[in-house]
Known about the structure:
Layout: H1 6-14, H2 17-24, H3 30-39, H4 67-95, H5 98-107, H6 116-132, H7 141-164, H8 167-194, H9 198-218, H10 221-230, H11 238-257, H12 261-300
GO molecular function, one term: sugar transmembrane transporter activity
Family: Belongs to the SWEET sugar transporter family.
Function: Mediates both low-affinity uptake and efflux of sugar across the membrane.
Amino acid sequence: MGYGGAHGSSLFKDAPFGVFFRSFTHQRTHRGTARAAREGSVALVSIRPPLHLSSPPNSGDPLLLSPPEAAMVSADTIRTVIGIIGNGTALVLFLSPVPTFYRIWKKKTVEQYSAVPYLATLLNCMMWVLYGLPLVHPHSMLVITINGTGMVIELAYIALFLTYSAGADRRRVLLILVAEVAFVGAVAALVLSLAHTHDGRSMVVGILCVVFGTGMYAAPLSVMKMVIQTKSVEYMPLFLSLASLVNGVFWTAYALIKFDIYITIPNGLGVLFAVGQVVLYAIYYKSTQQILEARKRKADQIPMTEVVVDGKNGNGRY
């Protein structure tokens, strides 16, 4: 039966003509759809896909990111900022020996200075550069940049040391330098050829970085021992202790935001050692000032090498 039959009459009777017409012509509005549903008309299904915040359009609007994605972006941004600040504090530490090497350059001799701290720092930097390579631990550009810069600075120090040292000292430094380069090259070759995953490569290199990094950060323990014995912080500059503390804090935070145990361990220990140095500085600051003042008074006194009595010196002669 056509639309003039019972069903057609019922449809026109029960549903307002405007709603039916909009349904028939597919002009879907919220009001018409709801009304048609209530009146039993033809069900209308929108062909327009819903907008999901978890699948943002190509506009790239950050406001359309889902909460987990927004949190991840925020954490990555904070981590990058902290890493940049950490690079700045590490650069200050790398440049701190400049006055020492300026003195060596002026005097044309290394005097009693040792090259061991600079060789140790160079090895540490080379290992961290290896760790940060994309083939070992991806997305570690900040680690590569600061340790690559440290490598260049330490090599400059060692070059000056080799220039102004002589004999056995020069040969020993050169031998250690060659051994370090060979060691890092061997580690790189073995790791890249035998370990076939990022996790395996980063674990091997990371453990070595922890060992060498901890040794480098533990070096000030000998200075702290001397401070306790002499009750003087004269040879433990506060500036370097504070710079070490700030550097350790920022790099520990960097490692904790996106957890990296190999960066966390040495830098966490560095924070503890730096805090210990600052505490010692606070304890022995006053006694250091007293020692320095006593030394100054002694230096200002006129040395009495001869005692003159009745026109004669201590030897009984005029």
